[in-house]
Amino acid sequence: MSEVKNHYVSEFQTFEKNGANKAPAWVHDVRKNALSVFNELGFPTTKQEDWKYTNVTPIAKGSFKYSSAPVQIGPDVVKSFLVEGTDQFVMTFVNGHLAPEHSQLSGIPNGIVVSNLIGAYSGHGNIIREYLSKYVKHQKNPFTALNTAFINDGAFVHVPANVAVEKPIHLLFISTKKESDQIASHIRNLIVVEEGAKVNFVVSYRSVGDHTNLTNVVTEIVAKKNSLVEVVKVQKENESAFHVENLHAHQHETSDVRIFSLAIGGAIARNDMSVIIDGEAAECNLNGLYIVTGEQLIDHHTFMHHIHPNCPSHELFKGILTDHGRAVFNGKVYVEPEAQKTDSKQTNRNLLLSDTAIVDTKPELEIFADDVKCTHGAAVGGMNESHSFYLKTRGITEESAKGILTVGFAAEATAKIVHPALRHHVDLMVVDHLRSKLGTANLPDIVHA
Amino acid sequence: MAETIEELVGKEYKYGFTTDIEADTIPPGLSEDVVRTISKKKNEPEWLTEWRLKAYRAWLTMEEPHWSNLKYPPINYQSLSYYSAPKQAKKLNSLNEVDPILLETYEKLGISLTEQKRLSGIAVDAVFDSVSVATTFKETLKEKGIIFCSFSDAVQEHPDLVKKYLGSVVPYSDNFFAALNSAVFSDGSFCYIPKGVRCPMELSTYFRINASNTGQFERTLIIADEGAYVSYLEGCTAPMRDENQLHAAVVELIALEKAEVKYSTVQNWYAGDKDGKGGIYNFVTKRGKCAGAYSKISWTQVETGSAITWKYPSVILLGDNSIGEFYSVAVVNNRQDADTGTKMQHIGKNTRSTIVSKGISAGRGNNTYRGLVNIGKNATNSRNYTQCDSMLIGNKCSANTFPYIEVKNSTSSVEHEASTSKIGEDQIFYCKQRGINTENAISMIINGFAKEVFKNLPMEFAVEAQKLLGISLEGSVG
Amino acid sequence: MIEIKNLHAKVAGREILKGINLNVKAGEVHAIMGPNGSGKSTLAQVLSGHPAYEVTDGHVLFEGQDLLDMEPEKRAHAGVFLAFQYPVEIPGVSNSYFLKAGLNEIRKSRGEEELDSMQFLKLLKEKMKIVEMDSSFINRPVNEGFSGGEKKRNEILQMAVLEPKLAILDETDSGLDIDALKIVAEGVNKLKSPKNATIVVTHYQRLLNYIVPDFVHVLVNGRIVKSGGKELALELEANGYDFIKEELLQSV
Ligand SMILES: Nc1ncnc2c1ncn2[C@@H]1O[C@H](COP(=O)(O)OP(=O)(O)OP(=O)(O)O)[C@@H](O)[C@H]1O
Ligand SMILES: [Mg+2]
Questions:
Q1: Domain that holds residue A403
Q2: Which of A102, A222, B27, B324 is positioned for an S-S bond with B353, CB 3.0–4.6 A?
Q3: Phi first, then psi: what are they for B251, rounded to 5°?
Q4: pLDDT, tens digit, for every residue of A111-139?
Q5: B212-223: buried (b, 16+ CB within 10 Å) or exposed (e) per residue?
Q6: Domain check: are A6 and A140 in the same one?
């Protein structure tokens, strides 16, 4: 293990020497502090409760390197990753570095900032300083510590008060092969949505090629009073890739945050998604769909923290597994004594399509207030028999019933995405993915009521 | 309204008296010598002494587990006495030889050891501090070939059975508390139901801690041979004392082919006072093994006592088509802390398990359900259904749910549902609109909440359990 | 069309059907009545091949074929349709896709061209008029969140689209308001022809005013204990099942 740590310490020294010095002095302090935390923690092991079912040894063993020089990719590739049939602002990063030639940011209304982090220090340094690393704690999460130690670039978005951003903002992170190196991209995103503002994001993680990279992201979202934020995460890196993200949303009163996670890529993908509802009458919808095939392991750890009264939160995570796929879900709902009238519902449902797939699910409730309604449910099983019988009595064959019901199972999750174009984008990806992975071309498209 | 509810849940502890009886107590401390002393006092065969020593040595290498949600000060294992027995004639030939003070104690606890007075449906093994003091209806049971006696007697009279099954479900190295128990266990109940026999009466052990500054470490072993059936009840109380007392028991159940064991517990150890002073630390390892095909093991527990509860009655579903069940009501009040649940390990094909857990938290109590459902690769066509509900009364208490679900084949299905809510205002209003007063409405509602569990208890126990919650079916508030 | 001989069936280890005999010819309407729990739905489920029900004895010929030997979807292809007493909700699967998939499978099995989306939509809209269903139901998930009556209408809509030879309607009238009852009954009547047959399971004479049966059978405790013409339904409405039970007792 210490060898592994040494690797990152020497990486850190190289990193601090070249290229990373564009950041202000305080960032250097944050980095150094985080590196010492990482040094102390090391990579997690399955002995730790939070990592019980997710063995990250393959990540720890890899000697992933910070990539300083950008890599060229073709415009067609980038285009194929965009949301079909809708105008969008696009900011593209390749291996963690802004690729202006693949970004489409013209026409952004005055006052709205969509920038890379490095580029924003000079103009918006005070906002960044206020929020960067404020709510996400790296003291306990080694990957977040590592990310913080290597804070360099990522997206910075600031939406001023009472502004509604009409087009969705697409943050596109592409990972590519670079010579023989395994690249580590420690992407850091900061999204600050001021009072009464409205904005939709799609955040895509894609790869070009079949190399083994590590994408280690931390995304911090601050949703001020009365704001409305929707974030649709689309994670479809190649099946050798390692993906880790700690996404953290901090909600103020009467804000409305909707997060959706589509996780279909990567060899190991770990998604920590936590929401602190730090204001009265704020609402959070946290949903996701994972499709796990081949030898993939996809893990979601969610944390819904209710601090104030009258806040509803809803979580629906669905998983489809086949081959030797492994899914992990751990959802915690924590209700503080002050958070009376909390209405929280969490559901995790898993559909197993092969005998060799494995699901470990752990829905947790910790409740300290009495006037609450909190429920959770988890289910793991094969195809619903009464559903497939009903289909068969209408003449549908076993094979197509399986396809129809699998797509239907997924559709119930994607229905939670509010922005129609983003939802459609995810629907297409889901059906496409299922078609190729299940080997049944004859699958219906997803139609929502 | 809050007061009424708290009153209801927090009735005065009735069993807090102490019995003045001369006891044979060894000095505090734990060592190999102490283990040998205990074994010698009990005149045990060599292999058992060795087994205890192995357990002790294993224990030395282990650490007290701290993964639970429980908070309690460190336990000094050297300050406890590991053996305390009421002084009485070595071997009792009949109940008449039992010290009258002891009979009186049990009488006071509502457990009559005089067979004539007993409801004929229940045979009792009474365990006072570490030692079994009386077993009723032994003869009646003997006619059917059923062995029901104290663990010590079993060691003397049925060494082969004990040797074969002791530690076969909970190995001495299983966990910290089980290892401790295996090293120093003093007595407990032993029960063997022969092939094809349906035990004609409920078997029951009544545990009483009396001596101060002692730990209680009893051990229960129940074996249902092929096609046998037994229903077993366990009750427990302890005096009110200011210091905490340690109780670390082990229960092992074995069901062979087509056998069924039903194990019910009403746990009412002293819970400590309002401020959390005193009370029993209850660290118990209970596990059953459905060893044969079509066997069934069912745990029902009503947990109202103890300052600290750490307890996960589990079932290993080894035999094909075997069934495991866990029904639990856990109530915490004042400063009580309960971390309880179950493990269902599905190994055989077509195995089924059901978990129903009802937690009620009041005062400053913490109630945690912790469960594991594991469906192994070869446990095809297996099913689990889990229902896990919590009710909160007042806003200084807490309810936690930590279920682990691990599924490794696609022909099986697991369904888990959990909810947490406060006692329903609408329900109370509805009752009141129909002329029922608040107190009765609340007792009806709490009773209804726990009903699914109560209905699995034998009649007599169900009534006691309901009373324990401060609930009476007639509607009179206790 | 269908010949049921000495049919016995078990569910969850319990024998529910204890020797059913019934013949239905093309063009006929048969009503089956009987007390709750007597086995009416069980008979319907067994005929459509529900896996939870185990046939322990007897046989069923559908147009000369052994029905019990066929998979549920093959029965549907052959023309057996069951309108469920409790239709299931299937989240995420749109009503129209579901129905189109079924229809095209059935057409394929008959050697007919599959319908494309446009053709299907046209057909669906026509049929929806018959049961007076709003077009908003087209894309809603199958039965999800439908009211009791809407589910029943949806069943009849499916029947209208699939055009079965033998339709078994299991209490399609329960949960329908008065207007809906008429609509559904008219729907059924419109689809009636000398080539197909209908088995109507119901508790109420009311429905039989609209769908006039040629025969009425009374199912009690897993057996058909009495058969007659449409007057039998009136008699049952007036007297309940007691008189039949008494008759049965006397005959013992
Ligand atoms: N899946 C099942 N598991 C257990 N019992 C069942 C099952 N299906 C049916 N039964 C039992 O079989 C009996 C017959 O049920 P069935 O649904 O056929 O009655 P029915 O005549 O349709 O009654 P109703 O008029 O109430 O619809 C009932 O006692 C029912 O409880
Ligand atoms: Mg019916």
A1: 384-449
A2: B324
A3: -125, 130
A4: 999 999 999 999 999 999 999 999 898 88
A5: eebbbbbbbbbb
A6: yes
Last residue of a domain, one of A220, A254, A278: A278
If you take atom 27 of ligand 1, which residue's CA is the nearest one? C36
Whether A406 maps to a domain, the answer reads: yes
Buried b (16+ CB within 10 A) or exposed e, A38-49: bbebebbeeeee
pLDDT reported for residue B70: 80
Q: Is A58 helix (H, G, I), strand (E, B) or coil?
A: helix
Q: A378 lies in a domain?
A: no
Amino acid (one-letter) located at C148: G
Q: What is the largest CA-CA distance in chain A?
A: 70
User: Which parts of chain B have pLDDT scores under 70?
Assistant: 1-17, 21-22, 86-103, 105-122, 128-135, 209-213, 236-242, 424-441, 443-444, 460, 463-464, 466-478
Partners of A349 on chain C (C-beta within 8 Å) are none
Beta-strand pair C141-142/C90-94: antiparallel
**Chain C residues in contact with A397 (beta carbon < 8 A):** 73, 105
- Tell me which residue has tokens 């729907």: C187
- Note whether residue A340 is domain-resident: no
Counting as contact any 3 or more CB pairs under 8 A, the partners of B are A
Contact of C136 with chain A, judged by CB distance below 8 Å, is answered with yes
B 293-352 residues with CB below 8 A of A? none
**What is the domain partition of chain C in residue ranges?**
2-251
Instruction: Pick from C15, C41, C236 the residue to mutate for probing ligand 1's pocket: most ligand atoms within 8 Å of its CB.
Output: C41
Cα B386 to ligand 1 centroid, rounded to whole Å: 25
C12 Cα to the center of ligand 1, angstroms: 11
- For residue B476, what pLDDT is reported? 22
Average pLDDT, chain C: 89
Ligand lying nearest the CA atom of residue C35: 1
Parallel, antiparallel or unpaired: strands C65-66 and C53-62: antiparallel
- Residue B198 DSSP class: B
pTM of the model: 0.85
The third-level CATH classification (topology) of the domain covering C2-251 is Rossmann fold (3.40.50)
CB–CB of C73 and A447 under 8 A? Answer: no
**C-alpha–C-alpha distance, residues C85 and C42, integer Å:** 11
CA A429/CA A236 separation, integer angstroms: 9
| Residue among C16, C86, C224 to mutate when testing ligand 1 (max atoms within 8 A of CB) | C16
- Kindly state the tokens that stand for C62: 């559908």
Residue that terminates a domain, selected from A278, A295, A329? A278
Residue C109 near chain A (CB below 8 Å):
yes
| Whole-number pLDDT of residue A345 | 96
- Is the per-residue pLDDT at A200 higher than 90? yes
A280, containing H or E segment: none
Closest protein CA for atom 29 of ligand 1 = C37
Residue B279 contacts residue B242 (beta carbons within 8 Å): no
Task: Identify the H or E element spanning A39.
Answer: helix A25-41
Cβ atoms within 10 Å, residue B22: 10
How far apart are alpha carbons A143 and A135 in whole angstroms? 15
Percent of chain B with pLDDT over 90: 44
Whether the CB of B393 is below 8 Å from some CB of chain A: the reply is yes
C touches A (3+ CB pairs < 8 Å)?
yes
Identify the closest residue of chain A to B370 by CA–CA distance: A364
- Closest CA relative to residue B23, chosen from B129, B113, B151, B150: B129
